[in-house]
Each structure stands twice: as C-alpha cells, then as structure tokens.
Amino acid sequence: MELTVEHSGRFCQSCGMPMPEKDLLGTEREGVQTEEYCKYCYEDGEFKQPDITLQGMIDLCTGYLVEQGMDEMGAKGMLTQSLPLLKRWKQEGVSS
C-alpha cells in the first residue's frame, strides 16, 4: 500500500509556506482562521511583522529553507521569483 500526503494547495500569501494542515493557518481578529496567511505571519487580523520589507522576508525565509537542507543560492533565487507574486507584496505595490 502506498502512503500519500494530501496537500490542500494553500500557501501563505506573505511567506509562501505551504499550509496543508489547518493548525498552520493564521487568524482574524474574531479568532476565525484565514486560508490566506500562516500563523507565523498573521495573527488576530494583523501581520506579526508589519514593517518587514519584501527583501527582509526573502532573507528570513532563506534562512529557514537552508535549515531544511536547501542550498542558500537556490533558496534565495526561488524566493526572489515567487514572493513578489504573493498577495501581501502585490498589495504593497512591489513589482519584480
């Protein structure tokens, strides 16, 4: 029997992290979970790091991906291409 992992297709619209499980979802002020942002980026209807820049988020996430075994150049390249396309950064008027 083959074991498969079902992925919801949800990705945080701030950091790009996959959110296959509901316990990774951020929350709105009313405590309702949002499928747009992860719990590490968004809580109680607000971004946890409201002043972080796109470049700051790329640098932060690069560190996490390197810890998970990805090489630094590959991680930074992937994030530089993908993060500007996410909702948080599009709304800020950031373009690539």
Structural features, described:
This protein has 96 residues and is of the alpha+beta class. It has one domain (22-91). It is 31% helix and 14% strand. It contains three helices and four strands. The chain has helices at residues 54-67, 72-82, 87-91; strands at 25-27, 33-38, 42-43, 46-47. The protein has a two-stranded antiparallel ribbon. A two-stranded antiparallel ribbon has the order 3-4. Helix 1 (54-67) crosses helix 2. The termini are far apart. This is Transcriptional regulator.
Major sheet details: 2 strands, antiparallel
The number of helices is: 3
Mind telling me the C-alpha Rg? 14 Å
Number of DSSP strand runs:
4
Helix content: 25-40%
Through-space gap between termini: 45 Å
Mean pLDDT: 89
Number of domains: 1
H and E order: EEEEHHH
What order do the strands of the largest sheet run in, or round the barrel if closed?
Answer: 1-2
InterPro entries: Zn_ribbon_dom_put
Pfam family, one: Zn_ribbon_2
Protein name: Transcriptional regulator
